[in-house]
Every structure is written in C-alpha cells, then in structure tokens.
Design brief:
Layout (H helix, E strand, L loop, with lengths): L5 E5 L6 E7 L9 H12 L7 H4 L5 E4 L1 E2 L2 E2 L4 E6 L20 H8 L5 H7 L4 H15 L5 E9 L2 E2 L9 H9 L11 H13 L6 E8 L15 H10 L4 E6 L2 H4 L4 H4 L3 E5 L2 E4 L7 E2 L2 E2 L4 E7 L10 E4 L4 E4 L10 H24 L4 H19 L28
Antiparallel strand pairs: 1-2, 2-6, 3-6, 4-5, 7-8, 7-9, 9-15, 10-15, 11-12, 13-14, 16-17
Bound molecules: ligand EPS.
Ligand EPS binds next to helix 5.
Length: 408
C-alpha cells in the first residue's frame, strides 16, 4: 500500500499509549502540532461514542525526527498517550464478540484469553494513524493537495450534501457544526434519532464515509503493477480501517449497473493546465493512476461488534454457551472513521506523490512536482491560439505524440 513511506503503529487500547513511526518523510517541513491535535480531537468526536472519549484527551507528543520544529528526514515518532491505562487490571476475555477480531486472533495466537487480541485490534489504534495522516496533510498542502472526509450515511439515514464549488475550508467549517461530521444539516436529526434508538436497544450502527482530495496531479500510481495501482492502494488503505468492509471509488457500485456510455467521463477541450473532463464518475482514478480530477473514495463501515445486548457466543474456558463479552462501547463510530479515512487517504496520496517526485527535502519535492505539472500542461494543456490575422507559428510535430493534423 505504501511504497516510499513506512508507517507503523504500536500500542494497546488500555496500555500506555499509541506510538506511530513514519519513515521516508522529506526534510524541511515545519510541523504544526496544533493542527495534528485538531485532527485528533475530530477523531474523538461524533454523537454515539462511548464514555471513553470523555476520559481521553488525545494530543500528539513528537518523540523524534523533528528538530527545531521541522522534519529532519530521520524517522518521525509520534505518541498519543492514554488516560485509561488499566491494561494490567483488565479481566481475561473468554467469550469472543461475533464480528470482532477476538476469535480469529485467539486462533492465530493460540490463546483462549483473547484480551491481548482485542487490546490491539481496538480502534483506539487509529489515533496513531490520524496523527500520521495529519502530518501527511501538512506535506500535501504546500504541494497543492487538500482533503475532506465526511459522513454520507449513518445506519439507514442517507445524507444528501451539496458540495457545489465550495472550498474545502468552508466545507470543513460546515462539518465542524455537525455531530456526525456530515455536510447535510437535514440529516442531523434523523441520524441522532437512529443512534438514540440503537442505544436504547443495546445495539450499534454502521454507515458510510467519503474522502475527497483536490489538487492531486495526474499520473500518480501506476498502470503496470497490481500492487502499485493507486486504486488498489486506496482500497487497501480504507479496508485496513477497523470495521470497514467495502470500498468504492467514484461511482463504483452504481457504475457496475450502467452502460459504458453513461459511466465514462468524456474528454473535453483542455484547459491551460491540462486535460479536462465532462464529469468525474471515475472518482479521479483511471487505469490505476490519478487522472487530475478530484479523488473520491468511500468506506463502508459495519456496525460496531461490541453490543450491550450481546450476541450468542461460547465460553472457551468453561466450554458452554454464553453471551459475548461486553465492557463499554460506542453505539457508532462512523464520524471517527471519516477522520481515519481522511488520514489513510492522505498517507496513500503523499506516498504516491513522493514516489513520483522523489526528493529528500520539501523544496526538492515541490520543484519536481512543479516540473511534472508543467510537463502535463505543455503536452496536454490548451495550446495558445494566435489572434485572427496574426502570423501563424509553425509548431514542430512530435512523432507519436501530436496528431497528424496538429490539433490539440
Ligand atoms: C473499541 C472499544 C472502545 C472504543 C474504542 C474501540 O474502547 P473501550 O473498550 O476503552 O471503551 O471506545 O475506541 C477508542 C478507544 C478510540 O479511541 O477510538 C474497540 O473494541 O475497538
């Protein structure tokens, strides 16, 4: 999924904290810790979360790789410390929760006490991903790439946001007013009612989040390796998020039911910077590469597996039918998942961008990116047209690149 960056989190849900190591970042980025903290706070939010989120005050602690406020090129190590560090007092878990990692993890590590499994499988780990993703966004911003994650469905309530031509900063402000990281104010009350009803029934809810990225240059990713394709990498990144069971790029699901003539985005006369399309049903990725349009990906999250009204399970120590284990849990965490999704997409896009540009410093990355954007504009952008009556400039045709008629 990541080819130039390596990102690893470590830590248990109720251990000392979550630590993230990131290698491969260029030197020279001024790190904005407040912006990382702001994204960590967003991840903790959302109506329907458990009391754990009132306990935790997630803030980033930069342990290594940042000198004088800037990345040095060395591995960056970030920590988010836990307030609840009760791991050593936690009881063993012998009654696995259907849908959680408990049972499969117990089989993997040959243990009928599934406590170590659930501690690591817990979505608390995503605090570490968000810290890394926030840093990735800080590198993407000076490269002209910005991201927006938001919730488009909660349970069976669909949001119908109209994003229009609004900038992501304005949309971010709108999202901040929502208890569900949602851009459709009309969906707010039905979503709240759905969570209240699920909670009353001891049940949980899933949903769908969407991540958009603007300013992604065309040509990131690859057409010639199955592991290097941008869509494969985006898909893997979102599917790696706890409870995400499906991913869609562009109009993925709907497109499978339509004809090609209705699905593909016609190529229009180019703009000054490069190709233009009639639409973006491809979600900014064609043939495994970014096509210069907005990247649009969606993650489908199943309802949380920890139910207050537990499902049937088995006690693997006592050897009898028992209800699944319950401690405390969120009713839903789709708003949080939209933040985690944004972080994961940021990491993949930064990785693909660095793969394209190379560069050990932010300056070198930016220079290479400018060169790439210029090359795209030169070859695929609108050609300058001389005013009528002006002298015709003969352009030399490049065999195999320009069409014989020379039209652009
Ligand atoms: C989780 C169980 C809950 C969630 C947790 C994910 O934690 P706890 O057992 O402490 O109540 O709140 O998510 C987080 C702690 C978090 O920060 O996202 C699980 O089992 O996956």
């Amino acid at each position: 999924m990541l080819r130039r960056l390596a990102v690893q989190t470590a830590g248990e849900s109720h251990g000392r904290g979550i630590v993230t190591t990131i290698t491969g970042l260029p030197a020279g980025l001024a790190v904005d810790r407040a912006a990382i903290d702001a994204m960590l706070v967003r991840r903790q939010g959302g109506f329907g979360r458990s009391a754990r989120q009132q306990l935790e005050r997630d803030r980033v602690d930069v342990l290594a790789g940042v000198v004088g406020g800037r990345t040095s090129g060395a591995p960056v190590v970030l920590a988010v410390w836990n307030a609840d560090r009760s791991l050593d007092e936690k009881p063993p878990v012998h009654r696995p929760r259907p849908g959680h990692a408990d049972l499969a993890g117990g089989c993997k590590y040959d243990t009928s006490d599934m406590r170590p499994v659930l501690e690591r499988a817990s979505a608390r780990e995503t605090a570490g991903r968000v810290a890394a993703g926030a840093l990735a966004q800080q590198l993407l911003a000076p490269c002209g790439v910005e991201l927006l994650g938001h919730v488009i469905a909660l349970g069976d309530v669909d949001a119908r946001p109209s994003l229009g031509r609004k900038g992501f900063a304005a949309l971010g402000k709108l999202r901040a007013r929502s208890s569900f990281a949602c851009l459709d104010a009309k969906a707010e009350e039905p979503m709240r009612a759905a969570v209240v009803a699920a909670r009353a029934a001891g049940d949980t809810l899933g949903g769908v989040f969407e991540v958009r990225a603007r300013g992604v240059p065309p040509g990131l990713g690859s057409l010639d390796g199955f592991g290097t394709r941008l869509d494969a990498r985006l898909g893997a990144a979102l599917l790696s998020i706890q409870a995400v069971k499906a991913v869609e790029i562009g109009d993925g699901w709907a497109a499978a039911r339509e004809r090609g003539s209705a699905v593909h985005d016609a190529v229009l006369a180019p703009g000054p910077d490069g190709p233009r399309r009639a639409g973006n049903r491809a979600g900014g990725v064609e043939g495994g590469m970014s096509d210069g349009e907005e990247v649009v990906v969606r993650g489908f999250m199943k309802p949380i597996a920890t139910l207050r009204a537990p499902l049937a399970s088995w006690d693997f120590t006592a050897g009898r039918r028992e209800d699944a284990f319950f401690e405390r849990s969120d009713v839903t965490a789709v708003p949080a998942a939209s933040v985690v999704g944004e972080a994961m997409v940021a990491l993949v896009l930064l990785d693909a961008l660095l793969e394209k540009t190379g560069g050990d410093t932010l300056e070198a990355v930016q220079a290479a990116l400018r060169g790439h954007r210029r090359a795209v504009a030169r070859r695929f952008g609108a050609r300058e047209r001389r005013p009528a009556g002006g002298a015709q400039v003969r352009k030399r045709r490049r065999p195999g690149v320009d069409s014989p008629s020379g039209d652009g």
